[in-house]
């Protein structure tokens, strides 16, 4: 589903990604872990066609990143640190706007359905600028999946969320997993990674330090491998 070969990214005379090789199969849920500044978010931005790689090859769903960025964009749902919402718009207006961009049939019906799913029907027509962080993230989750993407990119999605929003996000991830979606999640939350991910990729200094299947949701194994690769604890 995703093939990355010798991916390099340089910016401001700094090499952020240093020859990433990564292959992700359709339907995998992959947690991307690593210290701050390791290049995790940059990797997601490259995949989301928001940042151009300096060199290397990236193919998504059979499309070449350099030649077919438009086709690739349609495959992704992307949830970055920022919500990407228009704060003077209501949830309904925001979601209808993004639904139309992606050519979703019956955009208003789809928008109303998703606002209900994230538990904010009562605020359907209120401006987003009046919402709490957790409420904004709920609508941002709906925005990311408005077009029913086959690939979901999540950049520290649980940060700052209340328990209700965490539950909604996890239900979205699990539902998409059941439907065969491919999911990449950058996170510092080992508990969420262990509960949701089948595979873990550890990034350190712009390189992949480890890549392993997480069996039986074993958070102890995850902690041990991370400590060994990132903190030098054996």
Account of the 3D structure:
- It contains 8 helices and 10 strands.
- It has helices at residues 40-47, 69-75, 91-101, 107-117, 133-144, 163-178, 190-196, 219-231, and strands spanning 2-11, 14-24, 29-33, 55-60, 63-64, 76-79, 151-155, 182-186, 199-204, 207-213.
- The strands form 2 sheets. The chain has a 6-stranded mixed beta sheet, sandwiched between helices.
- The protein has a single domain (2-86, 149-231), classed as Rossmann fold (3-Layer(aba) Sandwich), CATH 3.40.50.300.
- The mean pLDDT is 93.
- With 234 residues, the chain is of the alpha/beta class.
- The protein is globular and about 50 Å long.
- Helix 3 (91-101) packs across helix 4.
- Strand 9 and strand 10 (207-213) form a beta hairpin.
Question: Could you give the topology of this structure?
Answer:
Layout: E1 2-11, E2 14-24, E3 29-33, H1 40-47, E4 55-60, E5 63-64, H2 69-75, E6 76-79, H3 91-101, H4 107-117, H5 133-144, E7 151-155, H6 163-178, E8 182-186, H7 190-196, E9 199-204, E10 207-213, H8 219-231
Parallel strand pairs: 3-8, 3-9, 6-7, 7-8
Antiparallel strand pairs: 1-2, 1-4, 4-5, 9-10
């Amino acid at each position: 589903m995703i093939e990355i070969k010798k991916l390099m990214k340089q910016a401001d005379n700094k090499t952020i990604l240093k020859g990433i090789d990564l292959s992700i199969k359709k339907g995998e849920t992959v947690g991307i872990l690593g210290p701050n500044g390791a290049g995790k978010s940059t990797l997601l931005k490259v995949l989301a066609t928001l940042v151009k790689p300096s060199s290397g090859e990236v193919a998504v769903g059979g499309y070449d990143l350099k030649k077919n960025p438009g086709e690739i964009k349609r495959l992704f749902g992307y949830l970055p640190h920022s919500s990407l919402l228009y704060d003077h718009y209501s949830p309904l207006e925001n979601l209808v706007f993004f639904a139309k961009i992606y050519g979703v049939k019956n955009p208003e019906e789809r928008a109303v359905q998703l606002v209900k799913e994230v538990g904010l029907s009562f605020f359907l027509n209120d401006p987003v600028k009046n919402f709490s962080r957790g409420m904004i993230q709920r609508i941002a989750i709906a925005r990311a999946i408005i077009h029913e993407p086959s690939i979901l990119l999540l950049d520290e999605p649980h940060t700052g969320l209340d328990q209700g929003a965490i539950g909604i996000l996890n239900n979205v991830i699990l539902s998409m997993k059941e439907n065969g979606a491919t999911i990449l999640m950058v996170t510092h939350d080992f508990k969420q990674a262990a509960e949701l991910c089948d595979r873990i990729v550890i990034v350190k200094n712009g390189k992949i330090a480890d890549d392993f299947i997480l069996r039986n949701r074993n958070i102890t194994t995850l902690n041990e491998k991370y400590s060994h690769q990132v903190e030098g604890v054996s």
